[in-house]
From TrEMBL:
Pfam families: TctC (PF03401)
Protein name (record): Tripartite tricarboxylate transporter substrate binding protein
Gene3D superfamilies assigned: Bordetella uptake gene, domain 1, Periplasmic binding protein-like II
Organism, as annotated: Achromobacter spanius
Protein's UniProt keywords contain Signal: yes
Record-stated family: Belongs to the UPF0065 (bug) family.
PANTHER family documented for this protein: BLR1237 PROTEIN, TRICARBOXYLATE-BINDING PROTEIN
Keyword set, alphabetical order: Signal
Chain segments annotated as coiled-coil in the UniProt record: none
Signal sequence range: 1-28
Length: 327
């Protein structure tokens, strides 16, 4: 009797253990991913962030053997996208293109954020850095940075600069420009960099300071006057830095990947390994340079998060000095 009872309990235990094993999440069994991943981008299609996201997504998808679908959720300086991802299920199937706006400037630009940049996310890895470049229409009368400053001082309030939206890196760079040059150039926010660049090429916007300029410059659609970096960009060696042109304006825009807080470590490691593989490919490095970015260096999730935490107070100070504000 005792032996029979033990046997039944033993068999029941094995059955329960078997059921539990069936329901162990795929990532715990080393099978992540088993279905498509969504990469949320807080900016409109056609802009530099969107282009970068699609380049990264396509290459990582090949490594992970699952599609990575780019989902554009523009608005409120990427706050809409950030909130969506912060509240998503932490299983690795919803990730986000984090930027120096979403996890840097926004904390100082907005009086209230619908998400917590550090607490609500888990790091995957940094992609690259991309300085802003001052672009004007190809038939613009402005041939140098000083031409714009002189025109702005001669006719206060007449000139304008475009951005991908209030709180975007272009908005912040333009506010810095106004402050450093002591001028009043009007800000025109668009719903994304793509629409803004269309109006810039059509001459309805006087200039912008944005990332991803190389394709437009090489095609002759726009003219670059200055790069907001500490050194000239390898794809545009004839374009001076802002400092060389007489203004100490720098924009350290960066991009990375994050997931919702609580995403399991094995999942983050799988995504990080795929990102690292992408970043080390020579053809990928060339694509970054061709887009106007500086080549990315693979980082661990922890190293990326340490970088973000270090950048946040620096970004806040930059916002304070620029005087830019969204609300």
């Amino acid at each position: 009797m005792t032996t029979l009872a033990f046997t039944r309990r033993h068999l029941l235990g094995l059955a329960v253990a078997g059921i539990a094993a069936v329901h162990v999440p795929a990532f715990a069994q080393g099978e992540f991913p088993t279905r498509p991943i969504t990469l949320v981008v807080g900016w409109a299609a056609g802009g530099s962030a969107d282009v970068l996201a699609r380049i990264i997504a396509a290459d990582m998808a090949a490594t992970l053997h699952q599609p990575i679908i780019v989902d554009n959720r523009p608005g409120a300086g990427s706050n809409i996208a950030s909130k969506l991802v912060a509240e998503a299920k932490p299983d690795g199937y919803t990730i986000m293109l984090a930027t120096s706006a979403s996890h840097g400037f926004n904390s100082a630009l907005f009086s209230r954020l619908p998400y917590k940049p550090i607490e609500d996310f888990s790091p995957i890895g940094q992609i690259n850095t991309s300085p802003g470049t001052l672009l004007v229409p190809v038939d613009s009368p402005f041939k140098s940075l000083q031409d714009i400053v002189d025109a702005a001082k001669a006719q206060p309030g007449k000139l304008n600069y475009g951005s991908g939206g209030s709180g975007s890196s272009q908005h912040l760079a333009g506010a810095q420009f106004n402050k450093l040059a002591n001028v009043n150039i009007a800000h025109i926010p668009f719903k994304g960099s793509g629409p803004m660049l269309i109006d810039l090429m059509a001459g309805r916007v006087d200039f912008t300071i944005t990332t991803g300029p190389v394709p437009y410059v090489r095609s002759g659609k726009l003219r670059a006057l200055a790069v907001a970096a500490h050194e000239r960009h390898p794809a545009m060696p004839d374009v001076p830095t802002f400092e060389e042109a007489g203004m100490k304006l720098f924009t350290d825009n960066w991009y990375g990947l994050v997931a919702p807080a609580g995403t399991p470590t094995p999942v983050l490691e799988t995504l990080n390994a795929a990102l690292k593989k992408t970043l080390t490919k020579p053809e990928m490095q060339k694509q970054f340079i061709d887009q106007g970015a500086f080549p990315g260096k693979p980082t661990s999730p922890d190293a990326f998060w340490a970088f973000v935490k270090k950048q946040m107070p620096e970004a806040a100070e930059l916002v304070r000095l620029s005087g830019a504000k969204v609300d």
